[in-house]
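Hello forum,

I keep getting stuck at the same step: I have a sequence, I want structure tokens, and every attempt I make locally crashes halfway through. Rather than fight my setup again tonight, could one of you with a working pipeline run this one for me? It's a single chain of 87 residues.
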Amino acid sequence: MGRDHACAQNIFGNVICWGGDNKYGQCDVPASVNDGTGNKYLDCGDGFSVVCKNDNRIIAWGLGLTGPIFTTPFEGSSVPTILELAD
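Reply #2:
Ran it on my machine without issues. Output:
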């Protein structure tokens, strides 16, 4: 659960997000998240949402996030960004 929004996965494996003012597009779940391949993990932060797919892709959308775990800076967008884990 994020600061003012939440996401959940329904029984069909689709992610649904709601709440907040959606200022950063954090509730606009991208089609690549609900592509039928399934999700291992789902989480929300302060203005962003992120999933780890069953194939280990990490997809994030909403307010930008950066940090040492990611090799690809995420500037923030309702368009999904596939992030790569650092070695």
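The chain has a mean pLDDT of 79. If your local run keeps crashing, start a new thread with the error log.
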